[in-house]
Amino acid sequence: MRVLVTGANGFLGSHIVRFLLRSGYEVRAFLLRGTDEENLKGLAYEPFRGDLLCFADIEKALISCDYLIHTAAVTDVWPSRNAVSWKVNFDVVKLLAEAVRKSAIRRWVHVGTANSFGFGTLSHPGTEEDGYACGKYGLDYMDSKKAAQDFLLGEVRDKHLPVVIINPTFMIGENDSKPGTGEMILSVMAGKVPGCAKGGRCFAAVKDVAQACVNALEKGRVGQCYITGGTNLCYRDFFSLIGQVAKVRTPRLIIPTFLSVPMAAAMEGIARLRKQKPKLTVAMAKISGDGHYYSSSKAIRELEYPQTRLEEALSEAIRWYRDHGYILPRRQS
């Protein structure tokens, strides 16, 4: 059985390729022209270089494939309104849907985001039954991912497209070469974070999410969404855990949202003048003030979704950053 994996050289995609190969699948890796394959070094896969915005490339890539796992996405939150997010996160999905309908694909595992569902509290975390709550942040990343999910669920209903959707939370682990989610970890370790926002997140081991994607090929129910999270923690407790694992001093001061938002607005203004990305955006300040907590009970029950301890995921991530030249100033605790 051959699986086409988009974004195969990315953070999540590279883990998915490894789990697929271990499970006996053949892998065709859809790679954007000009990107490197360092995260896939030493793996036995078939590379396919193309452009997901080119329908002909998608059709070629799907030839002789039995499954599709689509991870490619734009996750940037700056600028908050970004046409590229809609092109990659929504338009590509429409092109894939058209191509899959014409192909012999048996199952499409689509990677969305837990943000497409309403977040809850530590005592009552959000589930797949909670409605979209992130529109208030004004981020094309979140809005485009939600629109793509709604489109696909409509295609399942109206055209019987064989789609299963995986909705990851904040992922942690090896191969975060951008770095993306690990930027927070690196900033805390380097002593660049003066305090903690009052909110929190649901933190997942990226390797667990990859396993869920592979399991969903056979175990996932068509037309269903599965939140793949892990440990719900407020930021202060998460930063403290980083400190314990990395042996560094971490901030304890809570910065209220009514202070962080104007600070972020000032940073955005300076960044625009300098044509740089701000360290903190208004949208991220608002998000960090909320508790984005989620339950993974459905994925655990139906996909046999594993739950790696957060300490282990953090240790793996930090070791990988150090081994790959992310030099971090250390302050002994």
Task: Summarize it.
The protein has 11 helices and 13 strands. Helix 2 (55-62) packs across helix 3 (83-101). The mean pLDDT is 95.
Keywords:
seven-stranded parallel beta sheet; Rossmann fold; globular; alpha/beta
CATH superfamily of the domain at 2-175 and 203-230 and 294-310: NAD(P)-binding Rossmann-like Domain
Mean pLDDT comes to 95
How far the N terminus sits from the C terminus, by CA atoms, comes to: 51 Å
Share in β-strands: 15-25%
- Strand-and-helix sequence, N→C? EHEEHEHEHEEHEEHEEHEHHEHH
Query: The CATH topology of the domain at 2-175 and 203-230 and 294-310 is what?
Result: Rossmann fold
Question: Under the CATH scheme, which architecture of the domain at 2-175 and 203-230 and 294-310 would be assigned?
Answer: 3-Layer(aba) Sandwich
What do you see in this structure?
- By secondary structure, the protein is of the alpha/beta class.
- It has a domain at 2-175 and 203-230 and 294-310: Rossmann fold (3-Layer(aba) Sandwich).
- The protein is built from eleven helices and 13 strands.
- It has helices spanning 11-22, 55-62, 83-101, 140-159, 182-189, 206-219, 235-246, 257-274, 282-288, 297-303, 310-323; strands at 2-6, 26-32, 46-50, 67-70, 107-111, 163-168, 170-172, 196-197, 200-205, 225-228, 231-234, 254-255, 291-292.
- The strands form three sheets. Strands 3-2-1-4-5-6-10 form a seven-stranded parallel β-sheet, with helices on both faces. Strands 7, 9, 11 and 13 form a four-stranded mixed β-sheet that branches.
- Strand 5 (107-111), helix 4 and strand 6 form a beta-alpha-beta unit.
- Helix 3 runs parallel beside helix 4 and helix 7 (235-246) packs across helix 11.
- It is globular.
- The protein starts with a strand and ends in a 10-residue tail after the last helix.
- The model has no long low-confidence stretch (mean pLDDT 95).
